[in-house]
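Handout, section B. The chain below has 401 residues.
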Amino acid sequence: MQPTQRKLSSQHLKSLDGVRGVAILLVLFCHLSVSCLPSSTVFLHIVHEVLYFGWSGVQLFFVLSGFLITGILLDTKEASNYFQAFYARRVLRIFPLYYAVLISLFCLSNTHIGNGLNSVLPLPSARPLYFAYLSNWQSTDPNTGPNLLGPFWSLAVEEQFYFVWPLVVWLLPRKILLPLCLAGTGTALLLRVVLFASHVDLWRIMYGTFTVGLDSLLAGAAIAVIVRDRALVLRARRWIYIAGLTGFLALLGTAASAGNLMPHGWRCCWFYTCLSAIFAMFVFHVFVTAKTDTQVQRALRSNFLVSFGKYSYGIYVYHWPILALTDIKFGAQFGLRGKLLNSIAIAAAVFVASYFTAKLSYHCFEIKFLNMKRFFEPKPKSADSALLAAEKHLTSTTAVN
């Protein structure tokens, strides 16, 4: 394991925090527009449709997670506590907030204060899936009604990826890992096409399996492999940008083709693959230009985006419950569609409340667990430790002589 590789994933790049900030803002704009913004005029309908595309922020999260997690795994592959360090640090980052919110909501729903929560919570029979990070496998249509824990499906997809991927990275050499990632992105697309062609329900395919995020996670993983080989970066730079441009053009064509020309289901099948290519190119570009002072880098390193990126996990977990509770307390139908100014005020209130709730949660609750990650630092193998000790002893002896 080369020193440069060992340090790569430990480098803190503010611009990647900015990318995370972009992703969470996209998600917020999507959910708030769907739930709050009326579409009573042509202009508002256009704005609604533009903001609705913010759902793609989840795919950006997937690409970034695949990139960062695979980078950590590659850089610690030779550690003697490879699995222990990875899983312990992931648990400390993800589990405390997730389970605290999950348990709190279920308990609150049985109290007078939380009266009405059960109407927007999963049925009791489905709740064990959330505790096991399997909520994405429930065969429910997300359009049938509000689900206060709806966004948790993407957390389940990531956890399932974290469960399997460390073993894959540990077993396979890097030269095989890259083709596997590329083949996996194509396999995810193929699975969606085959399942949809078999007349399986569209939403069950997209949100009821892992296929909705697999190509994005693996696209990010492929970028992590590429940036750890300078020669590979030089060779891949051109093709990554071509792939991103192709994905963008395909995305435009996919969005433009509607109705009988290309049914919605077929478009959705490869919509995610196009986004994977675009976002993989974006993350690659941000990473390889991190030391430059371009306008993109300056924007991503801005305090606004970096701050939202830092608290993005909390914002993602809290924003939908805050929105749902706001709806319940206001006694309106879920969607909060009313007068424009009222809708904007409610959306702004939820936006601000989500940010500051996440910030407070991070500094008062999550940080206590994050500080425990220092007890699970990756350790060199015993042979490496012995070699380092011998070198230290030799250096000390030479200095005495």
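Note. The chain has one domain: 3-400. Compare this with the example in section A.
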